[in-house]
Amino acid sequence: MPAPLIGTLKRYTMGDEFVSARCVDVWCPPSYTEDADQRHPVIYMHDGQNLFDPQLAFGGVDWGIASAMQRVVRAAALPGAIVVGIWNSPQRRREYMPEQFLHTSGGQKRLAELRSSHGGEPLADAYLRFLVDVVKPFVDTNYRTLPDAAHTSVMGSSMGGLISLYALAEYPAVFRAAACVSTHWPAGETSLVEYFAAVLPPAGSHRLYFDYGTEGLDAAYEPFQLQMDEHLRRAGYTYDADWMTLKFPGTGHSESAWRARVHLPLAFLLK
After folding, report:
1. Count of CB atoms within 10 A of residue 123's CB?
2. Among 192, 220, 224, which residue's Cα sits nearest to residue 210?
3. Among residues 22, 98, 114, 215, which one has the fewest Cβ atoms lying within 10 Å of its Cβ?
4. Strands 152-157 and 177-181
5. Treating both helix axes as pointing N-terminal to C-terminal, what angle do 222-235 and 189-199 enclose, rounded to 10 degrees?
6. Distances (CA, A) of 36 to 217, 247, 259
7. Contact 267, 62 (CB under 8 A)
8. Which CATH number do you get for residue 23?
């Protein structure tokens, strides 16, 4: 039997004319119910079915977000954040692959691959419109949030890391920070890194977290992440202040690996 969930979790079904309906989980920390006047920051996370319940999560291991958030709260004396988990759909690759990159010269081959191997046109822009125009307004209307960009973050792993970075690049007035865990750079390799280097907000206005392991799929990530890090340095991003990249030797590409370190990106987003 899984341990009782800390905080409260409610599940909704949402969709719009651009993306298929899917579950959206909204988790509130204990401080949300303990203080009726307290407003909370919000972290929007992709692959939402993997966050709270091992019976739903890929491979039977969830991220343990509730316990990780409480660990951060205790360590930093913070009130915690509301976490919104948007479940993925069968169109995950099409929804998470940064769409505008695919229309650059460096992305044309990847666009052809997406069409032939994943069933159609890219859907990332539609997915982000759904997140920004449907999910976020619902959460801000029905929960005591701090709705401004300074208190709104986005986070995901693998392709979810790419769509998190893309969300910040496309909607810098909505999201102040992004946590990109085991970012799947091979989806576009150096061309994708260079695309993001050209479209990210200027240094000093936003905060970025990256990490990667060294086993499995993660074994291919380091060269591209180092390229991204160098672009950030040249752009004036200050390490540990508005940008952080962490390497985890010996860890692979799995929910269990991300569960073991998820308190670190959560703390970075909230500090």
Report:
1. 23
2. 224
3. 215
4. parallel
5. 20
6. 44, 40, 30
7. no
8. 3.40.50.1820
